[in-house]
Amino acid sequence: MSDWLTSGEFSTVPLELNTMLLSLLLAFLGGQLLAWVYMWTHSGLSYSRSFVNSLIIIPMIVALVMLVLSNNLVTAFGLMAIFAIVRFRNVLRDTMDTAYILTVIVVGMAAGTQKYASAVIGTLLTSVILIYLWYTSFGSRHRYDIMLNLHWARPMSDLGELVRVLNRYSLKAHCASQRSRDEAHGVDLSYRLLLRDPNRTDELMEELRSLNGASRVINIKAEDESEL
Description:
Blueprint: H1 3-6, H2 17-41, H3 49-68, H4 72-76, H5 78-85, H6 95-112, H7 116-135, E1 146-152, H8 159-169, E2 170-179, E3 187-195, H9 201-210, E4 214-221
Antiparallel strand pairs: 1-3, 1-4, 2-3
């Protein structure tokens, strides 16, 4: 492994122009890679272009601060200084956004203190893990495909005919709610269905609409039960 990559792991930070340029460039590349990973893997409602840009510029600023604070004693308190400088006026809605912010700060600190191996390995390994969590949808829970709502006008004793149709198309059918004013006006039913074949949803809807006693049949695609 090249000397420039590992020498800073065991030495203080020399204030040289080449060192400063290399540190800032490495901080930029690390932030850029993490910003790309964030763009590819982000899900939810809190996406912001300015936040993506901040993932690139923050490690460079942190690296510059750590270069300025090159004295060993000051560097020891560098982390406290960084967190005192960074103040967010907006609230981070996604907990993963906080993880990205902390990561780019650490990458900037590693680059600014000439710990290039730590910066490179940390950025690459963190990026691989983040892509793995996104690609595998780790933590998500897929229980149902659609939410089915309908009005049942026949007696509840005849509900078995409806259930048989649902079981023919689904692996699991769960009655989530049952609402009725009185038996004469029928009952409103809501089901959660895990379909055998999601591509046959239209066939299921057509058969339910043609079923005697079933009306106002609508379905809503269920989202994965993951935290946003």
